[in-house]
Structures are given as C-alpha cells and as structure tokens.
Design brief:
The chain is mainly alpha-helical. It contains three helices and no strands.
Length: about 100
C-alpha cells in the first residue's frame, strides 16, 4: 500500500511539474494570450489602414475627381481657362491704412 501511495504522489508531482513548467504550462499559456491580444490589436490597426487605402484606390479608379481635388488642394493647380484669384487677409494695424 505504501508503494502505491508513493507512486501516486510521484505521478502527482510529475503532473504538477508539467502543469507549471513544461510545454503548455500555465505561464506559457498566459504569455501566448498576451501576445495574441497584441497581435489582434495590430491586426485591427492594419485593417483600418487597409480600409482607408482601399477607399483611396477606389476613388482614384472611379475617375479624375480625386486627381483634380488632390492637384488643386496640394499643388495649387488650376484648369485651363480659369483665373486664379488669391485673397490676402487684411492685417490689423490698428486702423492705419496707407
């Protein structure tokens, strides 16, 4: 009976060792869970970025409106036949106009 009890205790220690320190241990599972959450967060960020890029690609594929808007806003370009008018805000000099 003592031998059986000793064998069962030995098996218990071996199983406990594997649970805490072996492959698939609790600490490894916790670490992998943390890494999984980090990867999920990165994936969400990349999916949002991809949606933005996809929308830009569709805009560029669907016509010249996006090209024209970008050229006008970023480069200050105008069409042929248009007149460029730049309004300069009046500076507040305290009423001293010359």
């Amino acid at each position: 009976m003592k031998i059986l009890l000793a064998i069962l205790i030995l098996i218990l220690f071996v199983l406990q060792y594997k649970l805490w320190f072996g492959d698939g241990s609790l600490s490894e599972v916790v670490q992998l869970s943390r890494e999984l959450e980090i990867q999920k967060s990165k994936l969400r960020d990349l999916e949002a970025r991809n949606k933005i890029l996809e929308a830009q690609v569709l805009d560029l594929q669907n016509g010249l409106d996006a090209f024209e808007e970008k050229a006008r806003n970023d480069l200050g370009m105008i069409k042929r036949g248009e007149t460029f008018i730049q309004l300069i805000p009046q500076e507040a000099d305290g009423g001293n106009a010359q």
